[in-house]
Recover the amino acids of this structure.
């Protein structure tokens, strides 16, 4: 994952086959996320926030890595410019991404790149990328950054933070056994 955080935005700068791109990481990442949820205390609420249709729940911050769970929240997603580099791993549900070349495209609702991410999908977002992200109500992503994310809305109070962690835990747990992947395949 650090290989993805370290890559530049140059098209020729693709990491040499990081393991995460080969799949099979979902049960491990779910287990790690659940361990971090168990260890997360109400003190992490101060680094957590809602905004733009998402809740960002700080799980861990140490040295040059900050880990968040991103979940669905009230509000309408709108185009926003990424302030920092992030790597996103989809753990549950569906995550939608629209990228725009410039504000005019965003105002005209004319994205130049659209993508839907299912569980075990990964992507990197570079600073300056103008994008809209939306998460299904059952969606949870693990978002990794080098530093804490700039809040896009109000901070969560400790009770709301812990409630959202508990809800995310219930959504992530099926990924441990592969039931989530099996359900999605049979639904297609």
């Amino acid at each position: 994952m650090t290989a993805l955080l370290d890559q530049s935005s140059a098209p020729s700068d693709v990491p040499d086959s990081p393991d995460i791109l080969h799949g099979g990481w979902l049960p491990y990442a779910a287990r790690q996320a659940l361990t971090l949820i168990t260890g997360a205390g109400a003190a992490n609420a101060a680094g957590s926030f809602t905004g733009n249709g998402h809740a960002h729940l700080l799980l861990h911050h140490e040295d040059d890595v900050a880990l968040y769970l991103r979940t669905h929240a009230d509000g309408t997603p709108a185009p926003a410019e990424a302030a920092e580099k992030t790597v996103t791993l989809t753990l549950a549900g569906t995550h939608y991404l629209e990228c725009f070349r410039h504000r005019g495209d965003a105002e005209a609702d004319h994205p130049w790149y659209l993508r839907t991410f299912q569980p075990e999908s990964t992507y990197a977002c570079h600073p300056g990328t103008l994008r809209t992200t939306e998460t299904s109500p059952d969606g949870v992503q693990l978002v990794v950054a080098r530093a804490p994310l700039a809040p896009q809305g109000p901070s969560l109070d400790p009770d709301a933070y812990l409630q959202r962690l508990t809800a995310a835990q219930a959504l992530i747990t099926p990924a441990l056994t592969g039931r989530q992947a099996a359900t999605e395949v049979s639904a297609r």
Summary: The longest helix spans residues 158-172. The CA atoms of residues 101 and 171 lie 34 Å apart. The mean pLDDT is 86.
